[in-house]
Amino acid sequence: MRLSALFMIASIFVVAAALSLVAANMSVKLIEETSEIGVREALDGEGMTWAEVEADGLQVTLAGIAPTEAIRFAALSTAGTIVDAARVIDQMDVTAAAAIAPPRFSAEILRNDAGLSVIGLIPASTDRTEVVDRITAISGDAPVTDLIEVADYPAPSGWDDALGFALAAMERLPRAKVSVEAGRVSITAITDSAEEKARLEAQLNRAAPPGLRVALDIAAPRPVITPFTLRFVKDENGTRFDACSAESERSETEIMGAAFTAGLTGPGRCTIGLGVPSPKWSTAVSQAIEAVNTLGGGSVTFSDADITLVAAEGTVQGEFDRVVGDLENALPEVFALYAKLPETVDPNQGPPEFVATLSPEGLVQLRGRVSSENLRTVADSYAKAAFGSDNVYTGARIVDDLPTDWSVRVLAGLGALSELSNGAVTVTPDSVVVSGNTGNPEASTTIASLLANRLGEAEDFDIAVTYQEQLDPVAALPTPEECEAEIAAIVGTSKITFEPGNATIDAGALGTMDDIAEVLRQCGGIRLEIQGHTDSQGREEMNLNLSQARAQSVLNELRARRVLTSTFSAKGYGETDPIADNDTEEGREANRRIEFRLIRPAPSAPEGETTLETLAGSGDTAESDAETDAQEEGTSDEQN
């Protein structure tokens, strides 16, 4: 009986203990689930969905990768609002901070009469002292403002070429702003004349390194036209301008509109410049052109505010008086009109005249009449000074009773003749006639201005000058694209060949080199790359070296022929750029070639790209071919 009671008591304790363990385990599970769910919901509510939550008993573990350290701390704080912060275990990581990007290196150089200033950020690898010393040398005695900062980062691709070109350009530009970036230079400058603008643009384009992007904005001031001259003619030879000046594009448009109404055909152009005598210049010109058209022919000449209208011979006196009267009343103030109706001349009567002719070879003859020995001597000396002492023959004779202004007219005519490439000038008591050919598109304007200024008001002159592009020393030059095409045609007809296995040009191809050199002498300083190519037989490295040697050999041959090659480069491409199938003999023959290509600026590599990244992207790495035998090398030597 006693044992049964003890067993009962023990059983009760065992059952109670078991029930306690079950209850404790269920409580722990409930706490884990409640804590995990609560913390997860709180984090999701804050947008921290990246966080992982795991409960283990009373502990809550946070894992995951936080975007920043601040967000990681915020996750801990949020979890601490749901459970005791002491129960939160932090196993979170933070996204690795990205490497600080290098700054954008740039510089701006400003130069004017007051001095030179430079501002910008340059890499530490650039010698700042050398840059400042060079800027100081460019400035001379003018003050220099140095605002350059330095950052300790590698120089980006294209930076050194851009900065070097910018400093070289600034030496040529007394008034300019140059902006420098890696691979790009922008130049804004002002020159004294259109000729200076063209010269600077050509020099800077030739000096730019290959691959550098150059933006040029070089302005030239409008020329000062003195006197402000315009001459409109309508006669049996057609309707034309011998000279046209305007102060603006709008004024030019108004003048051309009046001229087209009067019968002008083809393109018309005025020289836009400074010096207009009145803001109503275009109005006065349009009215005068309309008067000439109403008369049916004649000419009108403007020299500043002085207007000379010469009607066509045979114009009815009454019509002439009416049109001239209407024009005098309509002209704006400031302008003064002189009108002339020529008398009908007996065609059998020979007026006194002086004639000077200029041949295409540059030979000048002076014939006709002069008023004195002194005038003949002066005319002869003037012509020799303008055309050369050995090129002038004077056969003029002295005649009495010539007009008192004959010497002025003769010398003015010789001055007009000096503006031509070939032609003639005829001086009579009533007119000066200039005719011929020129390579200067502004020759007619220059001649008209010269005659109007020297002959004075109310004097008649006629200009029949033809611009011929082949006489223009600038326009006659071929464009770089035309040079490239002409050389390609020569090489296509007569290929440049080499002795087997080496870079010596075959003797039979030397005539082709002569033809190419002759073309390049006419092309000026174009930027040209001489490219060497081979077929695919043999080792790639050997083919590349052979193509480079052959391209350099062609460049050396051009130098030997006194071709200026400072803007040329030689580059071998090996077998990388075939133009035909290398599986056939005909294709391999076509691939073994020399090409001449213009160098055009190409975009620089993106900033921040390393050399290794560039090589990896372009696939320029290659495993060495150790198994290529000497026999294959010999085969390539013979084929290439």
Structure commentary:
- With 640 residues, the chain is an alpha/beta fold.
- The protein folds into five domains: 28-98, Histidine-containing Protein, Chain: A (2-Layer Sandwich), CATH 3.30.1340; 106-219, hypothetical protein tt1634 (3-Layer(aba) Sandwich), CATH 3.40.1520; 229-340, hypothetical protein tt1634, CATH 3.40.1520; 354-471, hypothetical protein tt1634 (3-Layer(aba) Sandwich), CATH 3.40.1520.20; 480-639, 2-Layer Sandwich (60s Ribosomal Protein L30, Chain: A), CATH 3.30.1330.
- It is 39% helix and 24% strand.
- The protein is built from 17 helices and 26 strands.
- Strands 17, 18, 19, 20, 21, 22 and 23 form a seven-stranded mixed β-sheet that branches. It has a six-stranded mixed β-sheet with strand order 6-5-4-7-8-9, with helices on one face. Strands 11-10-14-15-16 form a five-stranded mixed β-sheet, sandwiched between helices.
- Helix 5 (194-207) links the parallel strand 8 and strand 9.
- Helix 1 packs across helix 2, helix 9 (373-387) packs parallel to helix 10 and helix 12 packs antiparallel against helix 13.
- The longest helix has 44 residues, at 2-45.
- The N and C termini lie far apart (119 Å).
- Residues 607-638 have low confidence and may be disordered.
